[in-house]
Amino acid sequence: MKKLILIASMFLLTSCAAIDAYRMAKFDNNEYALINSVRTQANLGASKCGTPEVKDTVNKIYYKAVELRNYSQSIPKNEETIKMSSELAEIVKGLNDRYNGTEPVSLPYCTTKFGLIEKNAVTIQNVVGGKPR
Questions:
Q1: Do residues 4 and 107 make contact, with C-beta atoms less than 8 angstroms apart?
Q2: Which residue of 25, 31, 48, 118 has the fewest C-beta atoms within 10 A of its own C-beta?
């Protein structure tokens, strides 16, 4: 009887693991969360152009873009995401450099850059969300 209970327990444990593996996301959740953060901040940041709060938003987006680039570099066979996240970090770096420089930033430049960052983030989000682990 004890052997039967032991065998049944082992079968249940393996079944639970198989079900969890089946229900698990097919993409890297951390990469997806980082790019989603960049996209959301860019989406909300565009409305802050011309206000003092925009500099803080730009700094946050730059931090997240660099964090995404660094995170994606440590994942094997992730060349596509590495390339896209590096390019995104460079785009955000341009905006960050302008806001941390001495010259004033024009409203059209600010809104265009935020739009470009958001557009690239959407593309990366679609790629990251659609790739298998």
A1: no
A2: 25
